[in-house]
Design goal:
Blueprint (H helix, E strand, L loop, with lengths): L6 H36 L3 H24 L4 H11 L11 H20 L19 H7 L2 H5 L11 H21 L5
Helix pairs in contact: 1-2, 1-7, 2-7, 3-4
Length: 185
């Protein structure tokens, strides 16, 4: 039977995860904005080129995060699903090659899950088992909203690809706001 935490404890955990993620996203968005505007001004394009560079940075980050979080293959997805169920194989295919490929993929997936420091779930590397050890993440931990809130447990924390996906939305939103609100065309 499942042991459930009280509602307030789950809410606190949820808030800690999102404070960590949003602080990372805001810090990386600010860094992207400074780099884009600086490059735009130094290359002679001004703030307009900076806005265009922000647009490119945002789509590049989104593409990278999506590719990192993407399911590897349909066979691995089916194999992972079968590996989670104890009832036995769910295949109805009579082709033994397909079943052997699925078993090989399941075996490969189980080995990767056992040997990597990152949990491999259905959506890719989204949940970390250990704390992110990048210099930027260490810097983000010292930024005020994050330093006031206790960091979430490493297995609950959103991974770098998930944080980059949120950041890409913020960068694209900043590019949009620069054009529509501030009139940078």
């Amino acid at each position: 039977m499942f042991i459930t935490r009280p509602r307030t404890a789950r809410l606190r955990g949820f808030v800690r995860i999102w404070v960590d993620t949003l602080t990372y996203a805001v810090a990386l968005t600010a860094l992207s904005a400074v780099v884009a505007v600086t490059l735009g001004v130094t290359t002679g394009g001004g703030v307009v080129r900076g806005k265009h560079l922000l647009f490119v940075f945002g789509w590049t980050m989104m593409a990278y995060a999506t590719a990192t979080l993407w399911v590897r293959s349909g066979k691995q997805l089916r194999a992972a699903h079968q590996g989670q169920q104890d009832a036995g194989p769910q295949h109805t295919d009579t082709d033994s090659d397909t079943q052997q490929d699925s078993m090989a993929a399941a075996s490969s997936l189980r080995n990767r899950v056992a040997n990597e420091s990152t949990k491999q779930n259905i959506s890719g590397k989204s949940i970390r088992e250990k704390q992110d050890a990048t210099r930027f993440q260490a810097l983000v931990q010292t930024i005020p909203p994050n330093r006031w809130v206790r960091a979430p447990r490493p297995e609950r924390r959103m991974g770098i690809p998930g944080k980059l996906l949120v950041t890409s939305v913020f960068v694209l939103a900043l590019s949009f706001v620069m054009e529509t609100v501030f009139g940078v065309v």
